[in-house]
Design brief:
Tetracycline Repressor, domain 2
Amino acid sequence: MIAAPERSAERDAAIDAVLPHVAFDGWTRSALRRGLTDAGADPRDAALLFPGGAADMIAAFCDLADRRMAAGMTAPGYADLRVSARVRAAIALRLAQNRAHREAVRRALAVLALPGNAATAAACTGRTVEAIWRAAGDRSADFSWYTKRAILAAIYTATVLFWLSDAGEDDAATLAFLDRRLAGVKRIGGLRRRAEDGLRRLTPQAVRDRLGPPAVPARQR
């Protein structure tokens, strides 16, 4: 699992405070100082709270969004859904929770697209995908762990990019896009399992023993 960025109530509050300013000033120290002033905190704490600058703030923002999504998925009703439906629900919930901060997300992606922030971008995506799978109840630890997360990373990234241009107030077009992507995954599910079986056969027995038996498809459980 990818290590989470530093967490504290002060950093969480600072992220909430800076978000209204990011749409105008970007993920900058100036925006953060304005946010801290609005929250009644000392703006001089900006550099102490996020010494890594924009990338540090964005990583904290993504982590806070992951935690809020996971908390929201504990609400009644989600546990009764199948895993695939919970994955969809988790993504839909995360988008809904950040609808008011769409421009902040857009600007965050622009910052993470810079070559120097590639590691931060990969870590943020990896943590979000893991949070989605865990919120969906997936606890796999075999070869399917890698393929499922790689597939979901591609789906989630494409969905967010679509969502940024979705002018609807209820994300309906984005969710329809997500449904098409998830339906495509179901069609290639057999290919994924064959690939996993082939990879398993090429892996030394000692490694296979540590990973455990292959995952049983949900429809067989």
